[in-house]
Amino acid sequence: MKDMNSAQNNVSDLLKLARKFNSFYLSGLHQGICKPFIVAGHQVGLVRPDVLKYLQRFPEVFRIAGKYVELNPAFRDYKERTTRVADVLQKLRKENEICALKGWRDECFEVSTAFYQESLLEMDRSAICLFGIRNYGVSVTGYLNHPSKGLCIWLQQRSFTKQTWPGKWDCFVSGGLAVGFGILETTIKEAAEEASVEGELVKKLVPAGCVSFYFESERGLFPNTEYVYDLELPLDFVPQNADGEVESFELLTAEECIQRALSPQFKTTSAPVLIDFLIRRGYINPENEPNYRYLVELLHVPLQSIYNWPFTHMVAAAAVNGDDQGIYDDN
Amino acid sequence: MKDMNSAQNNVSDLLKLARKFNSFYLSGLHQGICKPFIVAGHQVGLVRPDVLKYLQRFPEVFRIAGKYVELNPAFRDYKERTTRVADVLQKLRKENEICALKGWRDECFEVSTAFYQESLLEMDRSAICLFGIRNYGVSVTGYLNHPSKGLCIWLQQRSFTKQTWPGKWDCFVSGGLAVGFGILETTIKEAAEEASVEGELVKKLVPAGCVSFYFESERGLFPNTEYVYDLELPLDFVPQNADGEVESFELLTAEECIQRALSPQFKTTSAPVLIDFLIRRGYINPENEPNYRYLVELLHVPLQSIYNWPFTHMVAAAAVNGDDQGIYDDN
């Protein structure tokens, strides 16, 4: 049977980019290398070997049994799980060896089951990539239909002092969904802080779906879902940053945006939002993009079910059956 | 480990509908029951046992070897594969036993590899569901922003003489991608034939992505990808059918559309286009739909890679290794 990568002709630049921000998804989740992370009977993530070696030092918190890493099931509730995990992370943070923890945020993300969104614990935002926990955020595309240039989009350059992707080009406005904040609420908050979008303009925010992709970097695993919002801006609007996290803003044509997204100056994990917007607006379309349907697929990889079906379900079955030749084996 | 279906609370009506049009996807592709269909070394589909029993009678065309059904690899090219398969289908059609073939169309769909869209053969449209061949079509949502009713959408009722889904409510305009027709070309052709969209109005068609889902019915397997187009219509536009395939048209508010889509009067496999449109327009949004992100996921299931990774890739490896305990086994 031919390998899916055997014929490399006809691969567009956008598809190459979509493969890049899905580096972990397209690796087959490093089948056999990472261990499922289980909390209260639910798989909520994956742990890489480089992280596992740190967790092994805390057997009272993380049980590493065969093919799994399990948060001690004796922890009774959300609060106890949160505290016990935070203790370990603070110890590791002080040792200053794990790159991701150098960006400690003092802002927690929720760890929950995918389908019914049952909250299991919360964890500092910087740490969730160590466990491959699903990460939710919001992104706003600020755009306008320019009388002579056509579709134009405001991009932001991230501050050079940011812990992640400093100085890179990014969407107009974006932010993570921290514990206690709603989706629209976060969008409105971030739009005000990052770009001074306020008053009547806020009412023009239009939710338009979400993009999901699974990226991996040296720092960790990023199964990201971004709720996307569109915001048509007046021709004379100029975004002003209010929280010091933005270096500058620039208004680009759609074509310039694509070129920027394809360049190394763009935050890889923000490209899906931009590509999705340009697809929804018809700028990228079946007539000009040979890999259109596969591109759309790679903007919506099945993160909500990736830890339940089909892989882990079968692994669970194999484990229950005492089958040591489970499908996560590399041989 | 808890089953993903154990907690049935908080499941919205729209999620129930999304599960319905993904009945085959969510069954885990009937793991162990259907056999991969291989053409020229590529898996292009799946064959159910009820179809397999007919194919077994034609061993010179379909080789049923272990876990696979393979089109005879001695067939040299597109033309020979097409002719040999058509011969079998015509014989079966004459026997008048297979429900799907009663709707013979004299219109061929292409059978191709997913990623690089290499054409392998063509097959009558009515037969592709027997082999689980990926099916591509176009759909247009004709809408308007009504001064008093807000977002409104034109729906069509299918003719009672149609072979499939007679009399059911459907999108404004839709059609399958037949051999030799482009995507935009098909959209324009269908918009003219089904609803008399012509002239300047055609230029307002906006491509806006695609939806993918995997439905199963008694007739067969439907891994469908629909290229979606939006068309804003003038307030005074009234669609007129020109090809006799439409019973009537009706203009509904967004809320009425949702109710119609949830009713048994709606063509199940057209609901994804409508839901996707209402999500992209912000009518269905994270604040009013509790299963929003999972709903978006079920509008974009990974059909382009479903026959290659992860299942079949591993099955192929198991077959190569002579491993009889492959993952398709039910035990």
TrEMBL record, chains A, B:
It holds the Pfam family DUF4743. It comes from the Eukaryota. PROSITE patterns: NUDIX. Signal peptide: none annotated. Coiled coil: none annotated. PANTHER family: THIAMIN PYROPHOSPHOKINASE (PTHR13622), THIAMIN PYROPHOSPHOKINASE 1 (PTHR13622:SF8). This is Nudix hydrolase domain-containing protein.
